[in-house]
Amino acid sequence: MVMNAPPSQLPPPVIGLLVSRSLNLTSSNTTLSLTDTLEHFSLPYGIIGTTLKLFMYYALASIAVHARSPTTLRPLQYRLYTAILCFFSGVASASTALFGFINKGNAAHAAGHSNWIVGYYAVNACLPLFTGVIAMIVTLARRRDIAQSPANEEKEKEFICGVSLAYLLAFALGIWGLYEVVRDGWGIKGMQMFVGAAFGGFCVVAIFVGVMAIQGLPFERNMPEPPVSEAWKSWVFMMVAVGLAGLPIVMDVALAILAGNAWGVQMGKTTEVVALYSAYVTACVLPALAV
Description:
mainly alpha, transmembrane, transmembrane helix
């Protein structure tokens, strides 16, 4: 059902080769089918993966923005506990994804599939780490009763921007992995429809955010910067945020279409793959225990 191009027509797997050599991984000369590759992919995708990522965004907004428990919706009472929980969740999720790549992703390091494996593991490792660290920093700052002065707000923004830069490398790897998945599944009607819907949705969001950025500007005579410049900065910031948050979801849906597995249930039969899959999901939902 899935038409894969011959290895001779595929671009050289530069990213996968560099990552594999840096980890001293060995690759096989045998080309693995998509089914064989997915059996070594120990992370959720499809409906399960998308739901998991939406929960991460919800938990981050609930804890970091509103200072409330994601489950009870009550104000956080044990903020040190919540900060430790968020940090542990991020580190455990990233470690599980990295361990899964080293132990299982190497077996799938074959022509035509190595790059998407690297990109998907990288994004799934960095996303929970990113959300967990941000939630921890904001929660600790509130626990210490740091005054929300302009200087402190600027420091908080600078730190968040610094953590976001660490996610950009995984974002780049994810884009390349998404490209390979879409290319391999382009002959599937559902893939073409999804790509068109995703592109159209992104354009609609871009227009909506641009209008909101302009409408939300305080047009005053003594503004330090022209309104158009301020609107442009707001638009760029919001679109970068939309891209960083939307890419993992687009990747999950695209892989589910290519695999013909809407739920994204693990296809591997080994105990190790199932254990890694379960450990990753459990680690990602730990912020639900914040109180």
